[in-house]
């Protein structure tokens, strides 16, 4: 368990290797997470999500830069998709984060989704825990380019920033369920482009009516930024801090933490149970059920009923 | 589950031609690797730092400026200083034959010139990385 001790003491390579270990999962990873867990729960976890090309990495870069100016240490987890065909991935978020190089108060890790849907990787939660335990004050979690249903981030972060850019869709898009409802802070990026005010108005309409999905009295602000040159980013930072304060004073922090843990527990339980069943039943036996279902000899519910009896 | 190979692709130096780097990044992705692409104008220090944070198995450097004999040694040295000797380094670009030999002497695992077949390159990289 030396790796955990070294990472907690601030050894950056130990931290990097610990993240890989956790990402690859397995018995060692679980033992490491057990040792880490008492050290977690201190960092403010901030999610940044939005459609591809809306400027997530650029905003993350600018947020981290401005946080560093206030001596806040920042961990960054940037997720990009894995190819379902080859298992490979191109992780390109660092291209926009070059300003952050050489700063020991920053640690950036790129992650591939490795087959997971929902905008994050299966292991993102655990990688965030590693950075939290390593004493980063704030962890920025950037999702894959997300559309409408990649809302996993709301179950991982305390504060979710949803990015939009002008010209990506009409009001009806904004009215659809999903992304808008998980936003604690809405940002219209690329606000120097035509249509930004219109987009902001459309969002206003959408969220003011969707509001009940959010906690109590927090009204998600709608902000405009030009992340590329930093315009409007101080206001986003202020909103992130205000949201944290709101979470703490209203008691929602504790409530959210419980919801997070509950979702995590169910998620891990589901995974474990499935893996356990797979091991018990055996791939071949499972295969034979697949064939019988495909041949219409039996339906899927009967098959599952039988499998769960074993 | 087998361990997922991770490779950093970087362009040190000041030339602004990143087409080759992108082509290789894509080829390695298609060969099933996780490729961390860092973009243009990276200093050797930035490359070593990224390699450390990302815990990669290998680094591909694309250099077309002719500065490979100053840039590559700095990367190699930085890796040694950080205790990252196990990270394999590959160089792509316009590299004269005598420099190629010298780079290999320095510990570079592979040197590829213009027009290299991307499938051959990615197969070679994979083999080298799996060797550990």
Structural write-up:
The complex is a heterodimer of chains A (310) and B (132). Chain A is an alpha/beta fold and 310 residues long. Helices cover 48% and strands 13% of the residues of chain A. Chain A is built from 12 helices and 8 strands. Chain A has helices at residues 2-8, 12-24, 27-36, 56-69, 124-133, 171-175, 179-182, 196-210, 233-250, 252-281, 283-294, 300-309; strands spanning 44-49, 74-80, 89-91, 106-112, 138-142, 159-164, 185-188, 222-224. In chain A, strands 4-2-5-1-6-7-8 form a 7-stranded parallel β-sheet, sandwiched between helices. In chain A, helix 8 (196-210) links the parallel strand 7 and strand 8. In chain A, helix 2 (12-24) crosses helix 3 (27-36). Chain A is globular. With 132 residues, chain B is of the alpha/beta class. In chain B, 46% of the residues lie in helices and 18% in strands. Chain B contains 5 helices and 5 strands, in the order E-H-E-H-E-H-E-H-E-H. Chain B has a 5-stranded parallel β-sheet, sandwiched between helices. In chain B, helix 2 crosses helix 3. The radius of gyration of chain B is 13 Å and the shape is globular. Chain B starts with 5 loop residues before the first strand and ends with a helix. Classes of the chains: A alpha/beta (310), B alpha/beta (132). Strand 3 of chain A pairs parallel with strand 2 (34-37) of chain B.
